[in-house]
Every structure is written in C-alpha cells, then in structure tokens.
Amino acid sequence: MPLTKPNIPLVDIRTLSEHKEDVFLISRFGSYLAKHQNLHLAHRHSFYHLVFFTKGAGFHTIDFTRFETKPYQIYFMIPGQVHSWSFEGEIDGYVVNFSPAFFQSFLLRPDYLDSFPFFNNIVQDSVINLESPLNEKIKGLFEEIILHDSQKEVFQNDIIRALLLQIFILIDQNHFASKPQTIPQYNYALLKNFQKLIEKNYTNLKLPMEYADLLYITPNHLNALCKEHLGIQAGEVIRNRIILEAKRLLINQQTSISEIAYFLNFKDNSYFSKFFKKQVGITPEEFRKKTH
C-alpha cells in the first residue's frame, strides 16, 4: 500500500495530559521522563517542545544531529521535528509543551515565534548552553511558570505566556542580538516565504523556478538571495528539505524504500536511491542500517 503520510510516531499534546483539552503542559523533567519512558525512542510532536536541563548527562538527537547533554542547556523544538534521547544518571530540569494555537489568541502577529532564531528549524540554533547569571534567571522563570500552572487564577494562561515570552526574549538578546543583522527586511520576508512554501510543497515542487513563480520573482533573483544570505543556492535548500524528510521516514523499518519514494513523489525507487546517495553519500538502505 502506498505511503500517504509521514509515519514516524506522532505525539499529540493531549495524549500527554490528563485533561484532553489542554494546549499547554509544564513538568519537571525527571517526573516527565518517569511518566513517559517510551518517549526516548525516535518520535515527532505536533506541538512546540522545550527542554531545559539542570542536571544529568547523555545525548539528545534532533533531526539526526546529535548533541551531548549537559546542565543548563536548553532545547527548542518545533512541530514536526524528529528527536530521541539517551540519558545517563539522574536527569532533571523542566519540559514545556505548547500547541501552535497557544499564542495565536494572545499575539496579533501569527508568525511572532518565527522571529526567534531557535524556532526557525535550524537545529544548530535550537540548542543553547546558558551561562551564569542568565541560567539562574531562566531557571527562576520556569519555577514561576510551574507555580502559576498549579494555581487556578484569573489570566493564568496569559501570565504563563508572558513568562514564556520573557524566556524567549532573554535568550534571543543574550545569544543572537549581538550577531549582525545584515538581511534587509524585504529579502528576509522573501526567504521566509520561500522556506514556508518549501515546507508546504516539497513533495510536489522540486525546482527553484516553480518557487520563484509563486514568489513573483525570477529564478536568478531567488538563487542570488539564497546564495547571499544562506550560503547555498535555492535548489540545495529544496533538496535539503526533501532529504530531511527521507531520513525521518527511513527510521521506520516497516516502511519500504519504494513507499518512501512514492510519498516523496519520485518516479521510481531507483531514481530516489540515486538522489539520496548523491546528497548524503550513502544509499537509503545503508542509512537505515546505520541508524539502527
């Protein structure tokens, strides 16, 4: 049977909560691990997922990039990313899950979270080591969120949203604000729209000219933008997203290479395998063996 949708186990926030209508969850990470032990296996979320470690060691893998876990390290994950972990010793910290809808009624700009680099689907920007005194400040804000989450009070969710935004802004100011912002606003908007279009259409549209048409610019203009601000051409941006999804799907041993090729809209298994090997350096079969 053809594969019609990604088949990595998808965890919904409501399955993790005692209250099925919840769109927000916070927990101490030690308690969260004890309650959801199966979540160490590769899976993806339908929600935003934050983990702030205060104790422990091991490894955490996000979209096939492996990070060594250490105290005062914070992870930001967006819906759809695949991750798994392997921890050692006593682990503690905080975990926050919230649905995409959690901030939509609170902020006038629906893309507000996208303005933070750690929510931009760039894995290297989503894992941050916090140093003193910022780490204690962030820890205190997580404690405040836990306190307000345990109380039934007026504007409870708005207080929690404001505290979360304070965490986001503090980390952005301390880790990203010093980096020079060289992309003009118009070019930045074009690149963001290009990336959003890829996210929606990567299984069907694979050529830069197809995206350039949707953006009402020329393929040369799109290539120049990507080369200048991302360091790679538009075609490579598209191919990177296709390869990422292929890797995500290859984790599941029950799905055949032919089914994955069909889902990603390749004309046959052979063409997909050649494309994958050219980009990754190994065949899909070799990648699958390597990740198990």
Automatic annotation (TrEMBL):
Gene3D superfamilies attached to this UniProt entry: Homeodomain-like
Keywords: DNA-binding, Transcription, Transcription regulation
Residue ranges of every copy of the HTH araC/xylS-type domain listed in the record: 192-290
KW Transcription (keyword) present: yes
Keyword DNA-binding: yes
Pfam families per UniProt: AraC_binding, HTH_18
UniProt superkingdom: Bacteria
Name of the protein in question: AraC family transcriptional regulator
Organism: Arcicella rigui
